[in-house]
């Protein structure tokens, strides 16, 4: 059960952030509306939401998930793997410091929170262009000290691990059809996401609900069939900047 989330408002420089998508320039009014709706959805899921002010120096800084890994007992301040995002974690450290015992990923390690997935007592670390081996080894050491089982898996052709894989709980795992290390997840009930609905692989379980991006009916149906209540959110302006549901918050 999550009780808290940290989000950060998108800055007016948002459109200058990093993206590989060819979906056009985001409309800032719409970005703000979609972000507000995201916060309302978290509140509906029973979460107390801490909303941080925007930081125009970091256009990608609304994607707070990449800056830390959090559990109820401790947090790990990440070290973003793209130099343009290095420094976003400083403000998050200040916010988390009074709330959780903190650990740190240190140079030469790089690690984005979007590459880290918790599935009950296991953590998966995706080795992507953002998360390197030293970063993954440091994280493994910290998580193992808290008795989690930790696994590293390669990530190919995706920005982050959780762009293609997300754990819903109850042994249910959303998995994009082309995910390169699919066989690492054979013990789960896999809900395979088609190419057409790839963006919906980044759906997010929050307490009694699963939040999904709007416009992916097959995925929505599969999630509902599992018995979850679904909240659909329009995320077009975040998709334009390679952002998804999970990366917009830190939940614990
Ligand atoms: N635009 C999000 C990222 O590249 O990290």
Short overview:
The chain has 252 residues and is α/β, with parallel strands linked by helices.
What do you see in this structure?
The chain is α/β, with parallel strands linked by helices and 252 residues long. The protein has one domain: L-arginine/glycine Amidinotransferase, Chain A, CATH 3.75.10. The chain has helices spanning 28-44, 88-96, 133-145, 217-225, 236-239; strands spanning 4-8, 48-52, 68-70, 74-77, 101-104, 116-119, 122-127, 149-154, 165-169, 172-176, 189-193, 204-206, 209-213, 229-233, 250-251. The longest helix is centred in the N-terminal third of the chain and has 17 residues, at 28-44. The protein is globular, with a radius of gyration of 17 Å. It starts with a strand and ends with a strand. The relative contact order is 0.18. The model has no long low-confidence stretch (mean pLDDT 97). Residues 17-19, 60, 63, 159, 241-243 line the site of glycine.
What would the keywords be for this entry?
252 residues, 5 helices, binds glycine, alpha/beta, three-stranded mixed β-sheet, 15 strands, L-arginine/glycine Amidinotransferase, Chain A
């Amino acid at each position: 059960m999550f009780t808290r989330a940290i989000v950060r408002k998108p800055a007016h420089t948002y459109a200058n952030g990093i993206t590989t998508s060819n979906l056009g320039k985001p409309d800032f009014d719409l970005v703000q509306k979609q972000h507000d709706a995201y916060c309302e959805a978290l509140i509906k899921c029973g979460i107390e939401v801490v909303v941080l002010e925007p930081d125009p120096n970091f256009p990608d800084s609304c994607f707070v998930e990449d800056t830390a890994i959090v559990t109820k007992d401790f947090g790990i301040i990440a070290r973003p793997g793209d130099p343009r995002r290095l420094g976003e974690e400083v403000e998050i450290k200040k916010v988390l410091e009074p709330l959780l015992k903190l650990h740190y990923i240190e140079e030469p390690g790089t690690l984005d929170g979007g590459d880290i997935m918790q599935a009950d007592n296991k953590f998966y670390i995706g080795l992507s262009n953002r998360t390197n081996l030293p970063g993954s080894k440091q994280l493994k050491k910290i998580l193992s000290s808290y008795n989690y089982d930790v696994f590293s898996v390669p990530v190919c052709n995706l920005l982050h691990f959780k762009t293609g894989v997300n754990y819903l709980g109850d042994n249910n795992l959303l998995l994009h059809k082309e995910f390169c290390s699919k066989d690492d997840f054979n013990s789960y009930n896999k809900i395979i996401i088609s190419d057409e609905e790839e963006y919906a692989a980044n759906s997010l379980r929050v307490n009694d609900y699963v939040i999904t991006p709007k416009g992916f009916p097959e995925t929505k149906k599969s999630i509902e069939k599992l018995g979850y209540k679904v909240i659909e959110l329009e995320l077009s302006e975040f998709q334009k900047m390679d952002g998804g549901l999970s990366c917009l918050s830190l939940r614990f």
